[in-house]
Design a protein that fits this description.
Blueprint (H helix, E strand, L loop, with lengths): L11 E6 L7 E6 L12 E6 L2 E3 L3 E9 L6 E4 L4 E7 L5 E8 L6 E9 L2 E2 L3 E6 L3 E3 L13 E2 L5 E6 L7 E7 L5 E6 L10 E6 L5 E5 L8 E4 L5 E9 L9 E7 L3 E6 L2 E3 L3 E9 L10 E3 L2 E7 L4 E5 L7 E2 L3 E6 L3 E3 L11 E2 L4 E6 L9 E8 L5 E6 L9 E7 L6 E14 L9 E4 L10 E4 L2 E7 L8 E3 L1 E2 L2 E2 L15 E8 L12 E5 L1 E2 L12 E4 L5 E9 L9 E8 L3 E6 L5 E3 L3 E11 L6 E6 L5 E3 L3 E3 L5 E8 L12 E8 L2 E6 L7 E3 L4 E7 L17 E5 L4 E10 L6 E6 L5 E3 L7 E3 L5 E8 L6 E9 L10 E5 L10
Parallel strand pairs: 4-11, 12-14, 13-15, 22-28, 23-29, 30-32, 31-33, 50-58, 60-67
Antiparallel strand pairs: 1-2, 3-5, 5-8, 6-9, 7-8, 9-10, 9-11, 14-21, 15-20, 16-19, 16-21, 17-18, 17-20, 22-24, 24-26, 25-26, 27-29, 32-48, 33-47, 34-46, 34-48, 35-45, 35-47, 36-37, 36-43, 36-44, 37-40, 38-39, 38-43, 39-40, 41-42, 49-51, 51-55, 52-54, 52-56, 53-55, 56-57, 59-61, 61-65, 62-64, ...
């Protein structure tokens, strides 16, 4: 096909342009001598329709601005070509686009140009089924007003263009065929996030419906008993609608892959992976072996790690990329039936087992596996399902050889309370608890099967108790699952006790915890499960794997791993290539990722700092904590430098062995001009001492505090252009040491003042330690003070200035 233009040109040709690191663009080009003007460059906002059928010539309307006198169309793939048919209006143009029949399904970028420049690209979606556009008046609540679609398969692009809008499409389906109806909204850039799909027969009766598929857009199948006309109805569950609530609806007896099994194979091996889905067994499909109800694919694995299972898009449609684990463990698949103690599938440890929640009896499936373990052997049992993209929500339970739950420990309640003020969801970081004044930091709290730990007390009348966190959500202990809790639900401060320990009677309950886990307590595995298990005696044990919601199907696969615990950690630095104002500091954090139950202290040492800088070293990440914060402070004589000599390492005693890990690199440290505000955190001498201590020495100031003591300190600023109020935080205090007089608005210095006396309070249980802390302001670039060394000493009587 030869492209045509509707305006005279001086010179025209097919144009191929290439730029290093940039996509290949081809199009119909017109050379123009006009001087480029950014304000008149074309702007593309949408395509109508947003998709096209490959191998054909398609006419597509472009909507945007500055679309008059367009000269060329560009594409990100050489198998797409186009021509401008009409470009006489500023806000719309008509183009003709042709694609090769071999162009893979997917999205490609298209842009247009005029004499003043080229537009930003917009996505064009290419498929092998016919693409249609919703008729303007094609919406409706029933089949009488539905837009009639041609023979299947077909895709139609529509929009829920106003709140409460409902679109309906009528189509013919044959008896016995499996019709797949797929809505794509989020993958094509739509704002529609709560779409709902309903299928009605010719009598208006609902035959299928779906409000989302594995957390995404709706996808459903139905198999008509009789041939006839059906209606697909689309709406938003929240009744939302706008021009940005568009979607692509695809209908047909199309082959869709929705899952794979198994989820793992031995590394450096060749194995067969079964494909689950719809319409997979109609014919032999290339390298895929098909059966009546599915297909399989031969997969070769490499090094031990996750790898992609390549699904040929020309053979099967998929919603996502499928992954399989190439494993260094002994791998096996479950042997059904294995839902009773006498038929449990045996497994080796360390080893892994692949299973599926799938029962021909249409009843909730639970799989049992038997293993042998020695007394005192520290084991980890965990599942991979959500992490590998399956919809299964696993639950793990450890049973003895007779099928009875194995107890873990007892929790004795020593103080009662209840949830106050509001309910708690499963991710909430804190709560309001009654009589919190009688609690201490690090106390365990039992709330209806969940155990959390207190990290921070309320910091005012409108503040929550904070729990220990992991991955931004509250962490749970003893493998208990996080869950929601109602207002006024009872809770208790509890103390862990061994199973053999004799407990005192105090009128409060005793809770026995078993080896059960729904969701990983560290919150790293999503809905996957993780259990710590140390057998008290040698013998055979069973692990039961079930679906927490009772769901099942050929997509509900999981991988069970039983292995030895390997406590360890990694450490990371939060900044790189920092800019530090002269005479001031910038905060940084060192975070650690703990694994397999390691909770010990970690020391961070920073050595070989260049002259002119003061840095918080050593830093101590306390037991059970995941972060320490420091400051990089530039003295008045400092200059920019590279990190060539700076070394950072983390050291900890892990399972009786010294472990050293590299932390990271500061990169290039750039020293900038002094800021508009300087900050100082200083020992307290007297109320009349208001001099700002110059940051010229390379040693920190010191304060000493006694457990149970409150001491004063000075917080000072020097204004060098910043005249407004300044708010502060004191970072990296020892756990249990707080700023005690923060008031309703936190620690602040008003705009007409330059210093403030603060008070540090140390809890009685804080152990002796040295801790480098600093003040950081929040209003002028987050400037920090120089490090201050806080010494916690049992015999201290007063603050000491040095």
């Amino acid at each position: 096909m030869s492209p045509t233009l509707n305006q005279p040109v001086a010179q025209s040709r097919w144009c191929v342009a290439r730029a290093t690191g940039v996509m290949l663009l081809i199009g119909w080009s017109v050379l123009a001598a006009d001087k480029p003007s950014a304000s008149l460059k074309p702007v593309l906002l949408e395509l109508q329709p947003r998709g096209m059928q490959r191998g054909l010539t398609n006419r597509i309307t472009l909507n945007g601005s500055n679309l008059t006198a367009l000269t060329e169309v560009h594409f990100s793939n050489t198998n797409l070509r186009g021509a401008i048919l009409e470009a006489g209006r500023s806000n719309a143009a008509l183009v003709e686009i042709w694609s090769s029949s071999h162009l893979p399904h997917g999205s490609y970028e298209v842009s247009v140009a005029n004499a003043h420049g080229q537009s930003a690209p917009i996505k064009l979606f290419v498929d092998d089924v016919p693409q249609f556009l919703e008729r303007d008046a094609g919406g409706g609540l029933d089949s009488t007003s539905a837009q009639t679609l041609p023979s299947l398969p077909v895709s139609v692009w529509g929009t829920l263009d106003h709140p409460g809008d409902v679109d309906a499409y009528s189509f013919e389906a044959r008896a016995g065929e499996i019709v797949v109806i797929d809505i794509a909204a989020r993958p094509v850039g739509s704002k529609m996030t709560s779409g709902e799909l309903t299928v009605l027969d010719s009598q208006g009766r609902v035959v299928a419906e779906n409000g989302g598929f594995d957390g995404g857009d709706p996808l459903l199948t139905f198999q008509p008993v009789h041939s006839g006309r059906f209606t697909a109805r689309i709406r938003d569950r929240m009744a939302a609608g706008s021009k940005d609530h568009f979607y692509r609806l695809t209908i047909g007896a199309l082959p869709y892959v929705t899952g794979i099994f198994p989820l793992s194979l031995p590394a450096h091996s060749t194995g067969e992976v079964q494909l689950a889905g719809f319409n997979l067994g109609a014919e032999k499909r290339g390298a895929f072996r098909t059966e009546r109800n599915g297909a399989s694919l031969e997969v070769k694995t490499g090094e031990p790690k996750e790898q992609e299972v390549v699904i040929d898009p020309e053979q099967f449609r998929t919603r996502r990329t499928f992954k399989i684990v190439a494993s260094a463990l002994t791998e096996a698949n479950e042997m059904e039936p294995n839902d009773a103690t006498g038929t449990a599938t045996p497994m080796q440890i360390p080893g892994a087992m692949n299973g599926r929640f799938f029962s021909a009896k249409n009843q909730p499936d639970a799989d049992l596996f038997r293993f042998h373990a020695a007394a005192g052997r520290k084991l980890i049992l965990e599942t991979q399902a959500a992490q590998l993209g399956t919809p299964a929500d696993t639950k793990l339970e450890i049973l003895d050889s007779a099928g009875q739950p194995v107890p873990r420990l007892k929790l004795q309640a020593v103080r009662d309370s209840f949830v106050n003020f509001r309910t708690i969801d499963s991710n909430q970081q804190g709560a309001r608890l009654e009589n919190w004044e009688e609690m201490e930091l690090n106390n365990y709290v039992y709330i209806n099967g969940e155990v959390v730990r207190l990290f921070r007390m309320p910091q005012g009348p409108d503040s929550d108790l904070l729990f220990y966190l992991s991955s931004g959500k509250r962490r749970t202990y003893f493998d208990t699952p996080a869950s929601g809790h109602a207002l006024e639900e009872p809770c208790y401060i509890v103390e862990p006790r061994t199973l053999d320990e004799t407990l005192s009677v105090n009128g409060l309950p005793v809770f026995t915890l078993y080896h059960v886990n729904d969701d990983d307590g560290s919150r790293k595995g999503g809905t996957d499960s993780k259990l710590f298990f140390t057998p008290r005696q040698e013998g055979d044990y069973l692990v039961r794997v079930s679906e927490a919601r009772g769901f099942q199907g050929d997509r509900f696969a999981y991988r069970l791993i039983v292995r030895d615990a390997k406590p360890d950690f990694t450490a990371a630095l939060s900044i790189s290539n920092p800019s530090v104002p002269r005479g001031s500091g910038q905060s940084f954090a060192v975070t650690v990722d703990r694994s397999d139950g390691f909770e010990g202290e970690i020391r961070i040492d920073i050595t070989n700092m260049p002259p002119g800088f003061l840095i918080s070293t050593p830093l101590l990440i306390e037991a059970g904590h995941d972060e320490a914060r420091g400051t990089l402070f530039a003295l008045t004589n400092s200059s920019s430098t590279s990190n060539a000599a700076i070394q950072m390492q983390a050291t900890a005693m892990v399972d009786g062995r010294m472990v050293v890990r590299k932390v990271g690199s500061f990169g290039q440290i750039k020293v900038t001009e002094p800021p508009k505000l300087l900050v100082a955190l200083e020992p307290f001498t007297s109320l009349t001492e208001t001099n700002f201590v110059e940051a010229e020495e390379d040693k920190p100031l010191e304060i000493t505090i006694k457990p149970g003591q409150m001491i004063p300190a000075w917080l000072k600023i020097r204004r060098q252009g910043h005249k407004e109020l300044v708010t502060f935080q004191i970072e990296n205090l020892p756990h249990g040491v707080i700023v005690d007089n923060i008031g309703l608005n936190g620690v602040l210095i008003p705009k007409d003042q330059n210093e403030r006396q603060i008070f540090l309070t140390c809890a009685k249980w804080v152990q002796p330690m040295d801790r480098l802390c600093h003040a950081i302001e929040q209003n002028a670039g987050k400037q920090t003070s120089r490090p201050l060394l806080l010494k916690v000493r049992a015999g201290a009587t007063q603050a000491v200035a040095k």
